[in-house]
Amino acid sequence: MKYRLLRDGLALVGHDVGDGPAAVFQHGLGGDESQVAEAFPPDGFRRLTLACRGHGASAIGDEFSIARFAEDVLAFADARGLQRFALGGISMGAAIASRIAVMAPERVSALILVRPAWTWEPAPANMRAFTTLSGYLMRGDRAGFAASAIAKDYAINAPDNLASLFKFFEVPDPLTIAKLLAAIASDGPGITEQDVRAIKVPTLVIGNAIDLVHPLASAQLLASAIRHAQFREIAAKALDKPCHLTELRAAIGTFLLQQGQTS
Fold this sequence. Notes:
Number of helices: 11
Number of strands: 8
Radius of gyration: 17 Å
Structural class: alpha/beta
């Protein structure tokens, strides 16, 4: 079901679906609830997802940061009556989850980081494509972006990433989205390596190859830094999306069952 959450005068939209142990699971940059719905096990769990500002049906406002998005997610968990829960996310959602795990560890019982785009440093090199894209979006210059060096590199080495980037030219308000992309791409989870190493909850880190936005090395680094982390490499989304999603859902479901999560 959909639920409305008012934050700073903005109407944000969250989903609370399914029955069973609860998990809060967040989408990536430019994604929405549908991205999470296809990645998360469809049965056996209660899954909560808040569409971040400027994503899905949520209002956009003018303040974009991973820290602010994390505060919104905790507010949604509060509104839905969750005190302690499994927490995870994809890409930007993983950065949000990492921040919450560090800043509010008493709320998190288990952590799932899927295709992380950030470790702990702000503005990682793998996010420069979004910074570049934002300039072309502001000018409405799709052809110019297609001819850019970064688009040509992605066409060869990460076609799945490139297809996702081109979709931003189809949004109703590309100028505002360009500002959001630039702000988040230059941001970070606002935590340190020491913070990450201090995470104590059971953690699953999932990565895949052929992905310039979500380097496999970043997932491996996080898994090696977190004391109780498991690492799982799954099928590359760029090569076989159905297989990727099947393996992703299975990995998440198995991990949550292993933790004996309770709502």
